[in-house]
Amino acid sequence: MLTTLDSKSLGRLIRDERKGQHLTQEQLAGLTGVGVRFVRELEAGKESCQLGRSLQVLSALGLSLQVGSRRKDTP
Known about the structure:
The longest helix is centred in the N-terminal third of the chain and has 14 residues, at 7-20. The protein has a single domain (7-60), classed as lambda repressor-like DNA-binding domains (434 Repressor (Amino-terminal Domain), Orthogonal Bundle). It is mostly helical.
């Protein structure tokens, strides 16, 4: 499992997975129902990309998103 803490590294992860599956940005956009511009901006790490659409792209690529706390709880 990879850890990403910013939009740029998430974008790189998405781009690498898309390319690993031999998909163009246009093909990925068609599979997910989002625009090509959105895919480009998401892969570029644009911080204002919509979470819902980002999750659609992740799901279409077979990726999941897991959220965890970085806080260390001490008794």
